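Input structure tokens:
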């Protein structure tokens, strides 16, 4: 959770790089449906208009991953508040890693998530926390997870319903069926460093990637050899409320960076948060094989037996 707060404080600086890349004309949900239709996996992103029309539909669980203070001040009706910190932990000195499956299953069950629920996740920081939970649910085998385009900021701007009522929590049963193909550990990355069928994507800033700015807890600055850099903020429009860019622009962004869809893609960052954003975007674009290296560069750089490039 500390990582999300740190990134949130750095948000204003980070988005300067994309302020001039904003795409006007699709901030309203009337145009959003048309935009969503161009994504290969359009069901992974839901518009405010569509969600507003389905609020009372049985089988939907809305998860709000903002702070508890913001949640109590107003949230999407029926939404349940879950902290990312509840499903992450420190492992081997690396903060923010996925907690043991039994812990995550318990938290999700307490949030009303079942095997058959359609889960809608949202935040107010460009999807950074929402996509983290998206990856967790996909990794654990949940088949129906979507992220709200524009998050709560766009929801408010478009004046969809809000509530301060805290819904009664009904403990549900969620069964984890972990999908190993969605996760890469340190050994897997090491074993595939020279595999031509695998591509590594570093979702950190260019300064972190080159080693100019090491990053907190990074023992050796730089990046994993062979990785290409796509800063996660480039996935978003520059204008508030920030949204995922249209499919054509995202596809061009990753194509130019050298991320071919025919390869197996491994995304990483400092501790997995920003990498989850890249993971979601690649899944949205239809990349068939995407893994997230959860330990990311904090874990990698701490192992002096592993190579680091600059």
């Amino acid at each position: 959770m500390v990582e999300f707060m740190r990134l949130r404080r750095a948000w204003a600086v980070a988005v300067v790089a994309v302020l001039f890349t904003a795409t006007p004309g699709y901030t309203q949900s009337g145009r959003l449906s048309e935009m969503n239709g161009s994504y290969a996996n359009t069901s992974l992103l839901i518009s405010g208009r569509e969600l507003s029309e389905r609020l009372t539909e049985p089988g939907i669980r809305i998860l709000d991953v903002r702070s508890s203070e913001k949640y109590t001040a107003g949230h999407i009706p029926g939404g349940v508040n879950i902290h990312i910190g509840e499903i992450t932990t420190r492992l081997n000195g690396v903060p923010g890693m996925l907690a043991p499956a039994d812990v995550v299953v318990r938290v999700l069950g307490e949030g009303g998530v079942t095997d058959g629920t359609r889960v809608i996740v949202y935040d107010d920081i460009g999807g950074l926390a929402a996509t983290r939970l998206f990856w967790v649910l996909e990794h654990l085998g949940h088949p129906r997870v979507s992220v709200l385009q524009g998050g709560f900021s766009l929801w408010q701007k478009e004046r969809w319903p809000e509530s301060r009522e805290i819904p009664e929590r009904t403990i549900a049963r969620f069964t984890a069926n972990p999908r190993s193909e969605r996760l890469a550990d340190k050994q897997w990355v090491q074993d595939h460093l020279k595999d031509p069928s695998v591509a590594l994507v570093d979702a950190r800033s260019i300064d972190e990637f080159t080693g100019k700015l090491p990053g907190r807890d990074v023992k050796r600055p730089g990046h994993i050899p062979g990785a290409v850099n796509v800063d996660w903020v480039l996935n978003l429009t520059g204008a508030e409320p920030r949204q995922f860019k249209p499919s054509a622009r995202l596809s061009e962004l990753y194509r130019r960076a050298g991320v071919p869809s025919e390869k197996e893609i491994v995304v990483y960052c400092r501790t997995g948060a920003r990498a989850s954003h890249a993971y979601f975007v690649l899944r949205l674009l239809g990349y068939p094989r995407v893994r997230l290296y959860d330990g990311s560069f904090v874990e990698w750089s701490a192992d002096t037996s592993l190579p680091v490039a600059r």
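Residues 11-36 have pLDDT under 50 and may be disordered. The radius of gyration is 18 Å.
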